């Protein structure tokens, strides 16, 4: 890629960004799009000042939201959102610092050195800059054996040191935040509860009795209550169906036109005799509710050998959680309970051995998906070449012959197909993670987040750098000695691709999909005529499992390319600034926290950065080898070792804080509660906090026809 | 090696074994050798029936001891010795079963197939059997591409399945033994105590105050007492010196010849004026004791930021041990306390970060020692060739020219040097492990045991199979794809060497060094004139760190060679039978248990067997590749994967039991104690159990001259 091409690409994307920015500034002020751009205030049913009164200002793009997103301090953000959101924002702050420092080193020191080399082009004439290849700014342009490479060597050491210092600082900062947040928290059910799985139920007794007798005997002073988990998959389906039907019924009732309320009782409402829809659905709902009640009584016997066990103190729960309970280590398995709204109810169906096997299966499936993902993509892309299309759709021939159309199709269709395939990946990862038998959505998301990260690194980074050889790329792991050489050969060649990637996939897609929420906007426009006013509206929660890997991937790009092609860094700095403002805005207006992991995502960020550093070192070792500076190559070897040792130290120093709270904190909090008069009320709440929502009958007034029917809260 | 050579070697070693057996049978009955062959009864000062009365039977070799070693049941053995000894004996039972089964498969099925192949020799004539190479019985003789190799393939699967079944059975058997042993145990100090390290002592207060306030505040109901650890390295040196001097003095006092009591007071007792040794040493001891008292008072201020903290219940100790105590995960580090007599006092000097670094240093040193061990050995062996010796010692020329002498020197000297170097290895491993900062001898021994195992496998197995290329052998780990091929090529060629190794290093050295205790016998004969009657006599404890790796290495040989050269198996079966009887005898008569790990060595045995299986599979994969049966080679690949999965399952199912006792057991035992009237006496004992012996002043009557001097227990 030459400089002018890069500038064109940047120009186009800048224009697109500006367009989205302007559109967002206008649309966010339109009351009809509030549920797209401010769902948090809609869900909270806040009074929106004069939202329905038209004024001219509404049509002007303004940047006031940027100021409002910028202003709140971290503590204010924490009070409005969750610690997870604050930790997420720390990724941007951390990345900005890293790229800022690396950018200064890269642009001011490395870039001139690279440009002054003459490995690629012998003449250096500043006037024909636009037609220069971007490679003249990369390390490829430095002469083989040049002494200037020692500057790159020093830069690698200095930047690694700086990044490690920042990593340490952030880890310690977030650890202290996490503990402070725990100290300031109110008593929460999950702090007092553990999940017990693989309860060894003897044939004579029920699961509930077994759990009760085990814990009253062993923890007479701290045991409070328990609730056994039941297999409710079928019931959940029924209740959600009933909920939907109930909503339909309510909507029909508001319908004044009786003609419209008629429908046929046959297949899909198209055949059969005409009946009043109100009666028809009413009868159907009654049947469903009968079913639900029957299922609820029958389900009571279907224990899953698992229970939520609550204790009177946090330390009591911690004791049950940390110490192996039964003599058999695969029975009485305890785990911290998630927050009640975070429980993933369908998980409970598996015994220890089943869960272990499904974990193995998931690992295999994940590896296969990651490694083989590109094969179908390449195949489908191959099917969409021009000739193929012309054969399939002969009537398109004339259109396809136009240069513009063919350029668009050959240029964009493959990448569109890739994007399409890629968009299916996060849900697949969530599905895989949920198969692993986690007990909470947050754990599933955390596991999916790591999976997505590995997937992205493999399929976007390695697939592009080792393109062509990727299908056999797995082979290089069998000859680890060759890895540095192969990477050093392939990675710098893709620098210009990744700069373009940062601009398009970073800037533009951040603005379009994150800020402008294109998909959601279109859905809302389509859905509007059909949706009733009374629909319950819920603010979405941020999909950490797709958002975090994206940001971390740019971090990886920045760290690996900073000394190969420092030109990428300014673009990454802009990306981080944009991301910082946009995500702050989204956290304040769009995403509502559903559950709180207290920053448990940070270790993933830390590990990913360490991986990026080590990858950078490996490439550096290979690079110095290729450039025939073997001494620099050998002297770089301690760098990854030191980095991994640093990581090991951090694991010991900080990771335990993210796994569980220390006894000191638990005891302090417990002591505070002892003097709290509200604690007995909390205990009462605690004993019912972990009831399966599908099992709770709820009376709900159905209609004006006098009688009220029990309806189930879950689906409604 | 040809068959007749093997038979000769077996014959010689059998004769040697018989000799040792006979000598042992006679010498063990001589009262003067009781401290060599029955130190347990000597230490226990048992009345030995008519031990001093001479009778003729004492000079006849009898095998009664074999019957007496065979007879006791496992429970009887447990009551007389320790669980560790029982677990050690289980290794032999396990190996016997494995080799029995593998031997039947190998000798009855594989051996005929190997022999009937004609890859190596085209004619098969049973008459010239003695001059046949041993290789005709190994897999090397099977024709390339032969269908018979599928029998080997099946044998690999069947034996792996059988070994895994046995591993599971043994693991579960020993786990249950371990728990049963815990239930039947009396209250022991180590069950109620944890070691706390890295206590964050603030400048204003002492370590003792910090520990006291932390635990009384956090565990008011279960905390009992603590004893702070002090830096006593210097003190320990002084006390042991004082102890030695005291013993010397006591011996001198029994001396009746006053002339012998005179000595010179100058350098080494050779110069200066003559003084009465009794007065001389008495004065010296007085000085030393003054020193010790001074050191004791000064040491009181030197805390090491570590303490033994005792609790009122086992669960209390477990809570402190399992849950991270302080907010900072590298402060208030807790660990199970070892038994009081098992504490390795000099360990305490290191902080968390120091210990971490020393662990890293030890890993590096261990790796270097293991990988580079053979270099000095080869160099020294090179120095001892005949010409070199003749140059150094010209007067030996005539002797060295004799064929017999030169044969012995060229044949035995190199292996003698190897043995000499090898004998230094276990102490070095113990030293390395103790540098790692373990708090107990048993942990040091366990860690040294794993180290020795790795060392033996690398230097005896790999060095012999990859001989010559070993120095560059590390390189093959950079090309993992080639490993199976290299191993399959090199390992079968060494079959005859390892058969001879089993016979010499297994049979003969087991009988000579273990049963006959050659070194100890010689030492005792030399020392006898000098040792006094009153010497405290202590029975030795078994050096698990050198005994277990030896047995496990033979297990590895059996598993890797069973399908390559099944001829090795009968020799291993004999080894196991010998080992079973001899070690039972030694446990009953020689080794006294010093401390009890309750079978914590078993996971090492398990892991080693899994390693041997996987090594066997890798060799099989390479072998089938070399023999051009690629399908068998590919179909073997699932075998190591399944084995590793099995291992993973066992880790989950059994390993936790070996790490700590489950809450259920602790609570049951605590409840038993509650009703025990002796528990308050135990608590009293508990609070002083973990005092550093160097800090305890002990009054000891010194002499007949009226006054008694405080003397220190430690060294005495």
From TrEMBL, chains A, B:
Keywords: Calcium, Ion channel, Ion transport, Membrane, Transmembrane, Transmembrane helix, Transport
Subcellular location: Membrane
GO annotation, cellular component aspect: plasma membrane
Chief location: membrane
UniProt feature, compositional bias: Polar residues: 706-716
Ranges of residues in domain CSC1/OSCA1-like 7TM region: 359-624
Transmembrane segments: 6-27, 91-113, 148-168, 360-380, 392-413, 453-474, 559-583, 604-625, 631-650
An MF annotation (GO) of this entry: calcium-activated cation channel activity
Domain CSC1/OSCA1-like N-terminal transmembrane span(s) in chain numbering: 5-170
Region Disordered: start-end pairs: 697-716
InterPro entries listed in its UniProt record: Csc1-like (IPR045122), CSC1/OSCA1-like_7TM (IPR003864), CSC1/OSCA1-like_cyt (IPR027815), CSC1/OSCA1-like_N (IPR032880)
Keyword Calcium applies: yes
Keyword Transmembrane helix (UniProt): yes
Residues of the CSC1/OSCA1-like cytosolic domain: 191-346
Protein origin, superkingdom: Eukaryota
One Pfam assignment: PHM7_cyt
Membrane topology, as annotated: Multi-pass membrane protein
Family, as annotated: Belongs to the CSC1 (TC 1.A.17) family.
Protein name: CSC1-like protein HYP1
Record lineage: Eukaryota, Viridiplantae, Streptophyta, Embryophyta, Tracheophyta
């Amino acid at each position: 890629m030459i400089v002018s091409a890069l500038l064109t690409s940047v120009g186009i994307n800048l224009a697109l960004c500006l367009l989205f920015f302007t559109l967002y500034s206008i649309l966010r002020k339109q009351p009809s799009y509030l549920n797209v751009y401010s769902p948090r205030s809609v869900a909270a049913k806040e009074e929106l000042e004069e939202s329905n009164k038209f004024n001219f200002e509404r049509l002007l793009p303004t940047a006031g939201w940027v100021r409002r997103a910028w202003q709140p301090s971290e503590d204010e953000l924490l009070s409005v959102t969750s610690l997870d959101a604050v930790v997420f924002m720390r990724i941007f702050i951390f990345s900005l610092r890293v790229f800022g420092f690396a950018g200064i080193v890269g642009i001011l020191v490395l870039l001139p050195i690279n440009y002054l080399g003459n490995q690629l082009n012998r003449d250096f004439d500043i006037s024909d800059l636009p037609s220069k290849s971007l490679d003249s700014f990369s390390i490829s342009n430095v002469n083989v054996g040049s002494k200037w490479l020692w500057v790159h060597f020093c830069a690698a050491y200095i930047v690694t040191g700086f990044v490690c210092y920042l990593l340490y600082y952030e880890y310690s900062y977030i650890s202290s935040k996490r503990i402070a947040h725990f100290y300031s928290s109110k008593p929460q059910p999950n702090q007092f509860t553990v999940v017990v799985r693989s309860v060894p139920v003897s044939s004579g007794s029920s699961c509930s009795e077994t759990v009760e007798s085990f814990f009253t005997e062993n923890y007479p002073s701290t045991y409070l209550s328990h609730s056994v988990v039941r297999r409710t998959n079928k019931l959940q389906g029924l209740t959600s169906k009933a909920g939907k039907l109930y909503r339909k019924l309510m909507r029909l009732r508001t319908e004044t036109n009786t003609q419209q309320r008629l429908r046929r009782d046959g297949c899909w409402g198209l055949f059969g005799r005409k009946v009043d829809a109100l009666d028809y659905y009413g009868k159907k709902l009654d049947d469903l509710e009968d079913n639900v009640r029957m299922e609820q009584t029958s389900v009571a016997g279907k224990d899953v050998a698992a229970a939520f066990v609550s204790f009177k103190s946090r330390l009591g729960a911690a004791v049950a959680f940390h110490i192996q309970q039964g003599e058999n280590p695969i029975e009485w398995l305890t785990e911290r309970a998630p927050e009640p709204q975070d429980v993933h109810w369908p998980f409970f169906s598996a015994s220890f051995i089943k869960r272990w096997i499904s974990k193995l299966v998931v690992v295999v499936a994940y590896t296969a998906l990651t490694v083989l993902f590109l094969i179908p993509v390449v195949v489908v892309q191959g099917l969409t070449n021009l000739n193929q299309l012309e054969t399939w759709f002969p009537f398109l021939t004339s259109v396809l012959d136009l240069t513009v159309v063919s350029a668009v199709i050959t240029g964009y269709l493959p990448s569109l197909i890739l994007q399409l395939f890629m968009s299916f990946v996060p849900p697949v990862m969530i599905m895989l993670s949920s198969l692993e038998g986690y007990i909470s959505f947050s754990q599933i998301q955390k596991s999916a987040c790591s999976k997505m990260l590995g997937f992205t690194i493999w399929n976007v980074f390695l697939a592009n750098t080792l393109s062509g050889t990727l299908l056999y790329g797995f082979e290089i792991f069998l000859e680890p000695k060759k890895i540095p050489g192969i990477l050093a050969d392939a990675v710098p060649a893709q620098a210009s691709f990744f700069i373009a990637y940062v601009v398009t996939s970073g800037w533009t897609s951040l603005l379009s999909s994150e800020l402008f929420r294109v998909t959601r906007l279109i859905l809302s426009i389509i859905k509007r005529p059909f949706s009733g006013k009374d629909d319950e509206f819920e603010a979405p929660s941020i999909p950490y499992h797709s958002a975090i890997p994206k940001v971390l991937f740019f971090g990886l790009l920045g760290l690996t390319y900073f000394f190969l092609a420092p030109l990428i860094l300014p673009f990454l700095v802009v990306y981080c600034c944009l991301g910082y403002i946009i995500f702050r805005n989204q956290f304040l207006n769009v995403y509502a926290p559903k559950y709180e992991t207290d920053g448990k995502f940070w270790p993933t960020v830390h590990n990913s950065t360490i991986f990026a550093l080590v990858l950078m070192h490996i490439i550096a070792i290979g690079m110095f080898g290729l450039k025939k500076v073997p001494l620099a190559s050998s002297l770089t070897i301690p760098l990854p070792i030191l980095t991994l040792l640093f990581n090991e130290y951090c694991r010991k120093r900080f990771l335990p804080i993210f796994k569980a709270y220390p006894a000191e904190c638990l005891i302090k909090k417990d002591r505070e509660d002892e003097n709290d008069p509200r604690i007995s009320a909390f205990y009462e709440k605690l004993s019912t906090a972990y009831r399966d929502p599908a099992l709770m009958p709820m009376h709900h007034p159905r209609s004006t026809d006098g009688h009220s029917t029990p309806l189930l809260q879950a689906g409604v």
